[in-house]
Each structure stands twice: as structure tokens, then as C-alpha cells.
Amino acid sequence: MTPVFRFAPSPNGRLHLGHAYSALLNAALARRLQGRFLLRMEDIDTTRCTEALARGIIEDLAWLGLTWEEPVRVQSHHGDDYARALASLQSRSLVYPCFCSRREVEEASARRDPDGAPLYPGTCAYLAPEMVAARIAAGESHSWRLRMDKALAAVAPSLHYRRFALYAMEEETVTADPARWGDAVIARKDIATSYHLSVVTDDALQSVSHVVRGADLEAATCLHVLLQALLGLPTPLYHHHALLLAPEGDKLAKSKGGETLADLRARGVSSGQVRAMLS
Question: Does pTM surpass 0.90?
Fold first, then answer.
């Protein structure tokens, strides 16, 4: 089987050096293994993602000398795929509607999930069916949360995935622990899907065999492996690379106003210099 790698940025800001490293790494591994390299725009958050920023990402990657297969998969064009995945979970009562606001969840829970968000205390997990139906019929906004206990009971006694080392390409088995995510949001109130549901659906539909992404997403892999098992999707091999850090020690982030690839280009830095810096 031909290896398939992907770089999947969110067009909610311009790319920085951390993104460049991840994109170049995926492309280099695809070349090394004589595989395919895909680009995907993860733009389900339509309030922050724009077409202009997506075009900027294309410009940045082309400046770096990268090429990828066409067409680029754009998540906002594939809502039906995510709706089918959600419907599969709904049909088996593996998810439930949650009417709580973020503030209500924050006030009700002192425990945290791996991303630092409050761990959901299960407020809506066992509402009476007639109450749920009435609230939905009334148009009350709601997300869909995974019923973690039932989801775990529906899969094998333990979940595993394979992690590979970059250069030796040696693999090891990792035990997944999705329970620490609790009843995670699988479809948000505003967009009817989530990063977690969309990414596992996309990876399967695009036949992605190797997921290479930042270490900040390693904990999410446990939840993704569970969703793959529930939806009957293949589990890729995973590698979570180290993050590039800002001088103050924080990870590079669009939200913190770090220097972007466009900024570097504007002040005369060449793409060759960037590639040499990241090599």
C-alpha cells in the first residue's frame, strides 16, 4: 500500500515556522517512502477561518517549494461526511445532546481534560428523553457529547495504536486512554461537527496511512483511536513531533502574534534559509 501523508492547517491565521516544520517534515517523509503528500484545509470553524487566509497558506507553502496532490480537501465543503459519522454514533446512542453553556460547565467542574478544558460532569447525560425532545423541538442550542462509558464498552477491552520513530521508522505499540477526555464534544453547537470527528473522518476518506503532527495533539490521539474503532475506520500510524518554541519558551502560535512566514518573506528571508533553519 502506498504511504499517504498530509499537512492539515486551519486557515485562521498565516503560517509560522512551526507550521513550516510540520509541512516540510510530512513532505520529506512522503518522498522518502515514495508515498503521497496531501494538503487539507481544516476550516470547520467558519467564524475564524477565511478563504483569504487559505490562499495565504497556499502562497506560503508554494514559497517553501512544496507541492501536493489536487484537489485540496476543504472541510467546510464536506459537512455531509461528518453528518453521516455523527448519525452513526447517534443511532447507537453513543452520543447525547448537551445544552450546557461553557460557563455552566466551567462552574460545575474542577477537573480538566488533556487540553486543560473543564471535564464535563455529565449534567445532560441522563435527561429524560421527553425533556430532550422538547428542548430540541423548541430550537434550543445543543452540542453532542460522546457517552464515554458506553463507547468504551462498545470496543475491545483495551485500545492501541502504533507510533513510529522518524528516521529508523521503527514502530511501537501505545495503549490509548480515551477515558481521560470524559464525555468529549463530538459535534459543536455552532458547526455540527468537531475537530475530533472531522479529522478521523477525513483521514479515513483520504486513505491517510501516517499522521505526523505536533506533540500538542498527542493526547487527542487516544480519543481519535476510540472514534476510529466506533466508526469502523482504520487507524493510521502516528508520530508527534516536538514543537518549535518562542524565545520565552511558549509554543509558536498565531494567536500570540509571532512572526509569520509572510513576515519573514517581507523582510528578505529566503525560503532556502527557512528550510536550512528547520533542517
Answer: yes
